[in-house]
């Protein structure tokens, strides 16, 4: 039995040695890992902060002030969030490739610090891969899972940020040592640089990288940057209008859709039928002191406001359009005004999330928050919310409620 154990152990060691030799190519160096790690850290921070802002808009808390102006604020933050998440894909894969040889260090665990290091890496890699994967699936609106995307995505964001902080703390000595490249002429510095090249043992600790190694390392970084750039150019056009013609990787592109505006959920997908929005449609307004029902013709008879406002969706696409309708605060005044706690908006839709949304008072008071009746000077298409919808500055598209049924003042 002992002989079989020894033979198996020797075979494992030979396999590990061979794998280490195959994977310890010049680009797979600590310096490359640190460079990619810096980029990954910035992208994670950007995604986390912009995602947190989006979460707070969708789940407002009373003590935190929200700002409807500038009207393009959410358009910028959510577009940045999605673009940074997509660019993270090649950067994350590049970093995993760069640290791949570390999987074959032997023995795999040498003490408590090694256990903490391996644990932080496992948590970081696992949470990052799942977070990016479900984010990309949400952009494509492909929900091949039973759990709530928003809830899981939010929780995993905290796990990912925590694992990044833990990983940085564990690897801080290496990060400091390899933060800057070794100067080409060591004699030009006051102190000779510390050994900062191969992470794996080298027969000559003072050996400097050859020109071929430096080019190979540079080539690895260029490959990651080129992939990230291609993804950026192929998707940025879904929110950056001048690049719209290049948005070949985007599920939705500006100008494509009913009335020249993309649609996430059609009336049919939301379960809204034509008879639900026929001529006998009315919207119920429950104000601070009274309630009333208004038909579409009665809304159209009220003073109208026209404004250029963006639709900015959580999937990252956005487009500015011209909307015409009645300011919400003026309609509420007909029912006694508000109580200062915002309103609850209800849709006719029977399928999908956000059939009810809460609008904080700061948006209710904004003169550009409209009960919109027209888009681009034409009556709303049913897929854009006919007979009436909400359009407000600085709010996520999922909260720009379509197919209005009622608006109720909160107390």
TrEMBL record:
Identify the keywords attached in UniProt to this record, alphabetized: Membrane, Transmembrane, Transmembrane helix
Bias kind Basic and acidic residues: ranges: 197-212
Q: Which domain of life is it from?
A: Bacteria
TM segments? 35-56, 76-100, 121-145, 151-170
List, alphabetically, the InterPro entries matched: Mopterin_OxRdtase_euk, OxRdtase_Mopterin-bd_dom, OxRdtase_Mopterin-bd_sf
Is-annotated flag, keyword DNA-binding?
no
Any idea where the Oxidoreductase molybdopterin-binding domain is? 278-410
The organism is Microbacterium aquimaris
Lineage, broadest ranks: Bacteria, Bacillati, Actinomycetota, Actinomycetes, Micrococcales
By what name is this protein known?
Answer: Molybdopterin-dependent oxidoreductase
Pfam families hit by this protein:
Oxidored_molyb (PF00174)
Report whether Metal-binding shows up as a keyword of the record: no
Q: Which PANTHER family match?
A: BLL0505 PROTEIN, PROTEIN-METHIONINE-SULFOXIDE REDUCTASE
**Where does the record place the region Disordered?**
187-212
